[in-house]
Write a structure and sequence with these properties.
Elements lengths: L17 H8 L53 E6 L3 H12 L3 E7 L3 H13 L6 E3 L6 H5 L6 E4 L6 H10 L3 E4 L7 H14 L3 E3 L7 H11 L6 E9 L3 H4 L9 H4 L11 H10 L8 E8 L4 H9 L17 E7 L4 E7 L11 E4 L2 E4 L4 E4 L15 H4 L2 H5 L10 H15 L7 H8 L1 H10 L5 E2 L24
Parallel strand pairs: 1-2, 1-4, 2-3, 4-5, 5-6, 7-10
Antiparallel strand pairs: 7-11, 8-9, 8-14, 9-10, 11-12, 12-13
Helix pairs in contact: 2-3, 2-14, 5-6, 6-15, 7-10, 10-15
Length: 480
């Protein structure tokens, strides 16, 4: 593919070349935007980063292309996928892509050649042609993205690589699904929005917890008015990762642990934020306007190191600044409140909290329980499973026991995305959702450094959030 070539799918007559996009977005030299690597203050926005700045929001940058909200995929009989990153997550997701009908994995990439070769063998064992293998160094993903037989690039790599890899996919005319967070800075998130709009390709958060059975049931109940007027929601990532972050084999190097030496905020908001944003129709009738964050001292990783790491271990050179527990309060344009929490450094059971409340009642997860009027009374929780028949999503009715991680929701996420691509439908989630669900990373860091002062939350939709539009609570399509 030539440097200026972008395939015709979804492209209008004025769509720019790759070279033009790079020049006008300035992404080649975009500022880090969080001040993390040097420990300086976050640059959340010109108005929001400074203490006492309040919630005054600068106008969003001018739109460089038409919106991607409501833009359908081009219909295709087979979805051809290139996978970049074949560690724990990428290898597991490869199994799910291979399990979905109408999907063909045409290329795999990892700088560790053994991992790429193992993935290629899986593809062949599934009865598909051997995929092209890219394992010549850290930048070989660029050659994968240039291939003409890929429709979707899936990125499952360390966080700092998500943005350059998503950018390469978009500039080469590919749709891209990125693990979370989609990017680590506001500059990068805005660049992904601009690139998606200008290249007419979708950039999606292809790790989210939005397709869980509980999450989709609560979503459909919320849209049916069972919680009344919605008031508040809460989501979290509570997951004791201490052993895994110090493991010599689980992650490819210490990259995830080292982020705790760089940022003080919520490093992984997407799992909790995505579902509750859907409940409240964020970007589809409401939006987050500000966020205020607080963080505890960072003691957990150092304590674990002292108890388990021998003298001379490389981690003894690390100074942890990342808060053990981060709590953020976000406010929406309609006056609702969202609580987000992050804790991976202390001993605790796994939880995403996953709560929603309104004028008629409340749902809380871990364990799942519900209290809605007029069904429940006397201040006693009700049985959430009683609502399965009426409110379970059609995906769960068709796939009662889906394979894969996160209780099967990952399979349904891949199934639904590739179904939309095959049938030429609008995706359930888009670049505006990816940017919104990831923005608490730099924004919480900025707010914590500003002693909890609220910081403005960008409107990545540039005003289009006011209009209602479909999302994960989708209608079952007619196959054909």
């Amino acid at each position: 593919m030539s440097d200026d070539a972008v395939p015709a799918e979804g492209r209008d007559a004025t769509a720019p070349s790759r070279r033009t996009v790079l020049r006008t977005t300035g992404v080649a030299g975009a500022a880090l935007g969080v001040g993390a690597l040097g420990g300086g203050p976050a640059r959340a926005s010109a108005a929001a980063a400074a203490p006492g700045a309040g919630t005054g929001e600068a106008a969003p940058p001018p739109r460089q292309g038409a919106t991607m909200a409501g833009v359908p995929f081009a219909r295709r009989s087979t979805v051809r996928v290139g996978i970049v990153g074949l560690g724990n997550r990428g290898d597991g997701m490869l199994d799910l892509f291979l399990a979905v009908p109408g999907v063909r994995v045409t290329a795999v990439c990892d700088p560790v050649r053994e991992k790429a070769a193992r993935a290629a063998a899986k593809v062949v064992a599934a009865g598909l042609p051997s995929p092209a293998l890219y394992a010549n160094g850290e930048n070989d993903y660029e050659r994968l993205c240039q291939r003409g037989d890929i429709d979707l690039v899936y990125v499952a790599t360390p966080w700092e690589l998500h943005f350059p890899m998503a950018r390469a996919a978009l500039l080469n005319g590919k749709h891209v699904g990125v693990e979370c967070p989609a990017a680590m800075t506001l500059d990068e998130l805005w660049a992904l929005v601009d690139l998606s709009e200008r290249t007419r390709r979708h950039c999606m958060q292809l790790e989210n917890c939005c397709y869980g059975r509980n999450e989709t049931r609560v979503l459909r109940m919320a849209h049916a008015g069972r919680f009344g007027e919605l008031l508040h929601a809460a989501g979290a990532y509570h997951h004791d990762l201490r052993e895994l972050m110090f493991s010599p084999t689980y992650y490819e190097g210490p990259w995830r642990r080292e982020w705790h030496t760089r940022l003080r905020g919520d490093l992984y908001p997407n799992h909790g934020f995505g579902p509750v944003a859907n409940y409240l129709d964020v970007n589809r009738g409401d939006r987050v306007v500000s966020i205020s964050s607080f963080g505890t001292p960072a003691l957990g990783l150092a304590a674990y190191r002292a108890a388990h790491m021998p003298p001379g271990h490389p981690s003894w050179k690390e100074a942890y600044v990342g808060s053990d527990r981060t709590v953020s309060m976000a406010r929406t344009a309609r006056g609702r409140v969202i609580r987000l929490e992050h804790d991976v450094s202390t001993p605790l059971p796994y939880s995403r909290i996953n709560s929603l409340g309104g004028t008629k009642g409340v749902f809380e997860d871990y364990p799942a329980r519900i209290y809605v009027e007029p069904d429940h009374r006397d201040h006693r929780w009700g049985d959430f499973s009683a609502y399965a028949e009426e409110f379970d999503h059609w995906l769960w009715k068709e796939h009662a026991d889906p394979p894969g991680g996160h209780g099967g929701m990952d399979y349904l996420m891949v199934y639904r995305l590739t179904q939309c691509m095959r049938l030429g439908l609008v995706p359930d989630f888009d670049v505006y959702d990816a940017a919104t669900w990831s923005a608490p990373v730099p924004l919480s860091h900025a707010s914590i450094r500003a002693q909890g002062a609220p910081v403005a939350f960008p409107d990545f939709t540039r005003g289009e959030w006011r209009g209602a539009r479909p999302g994960v609570d989708s209608e079952r399509p007619a196959e054909g």
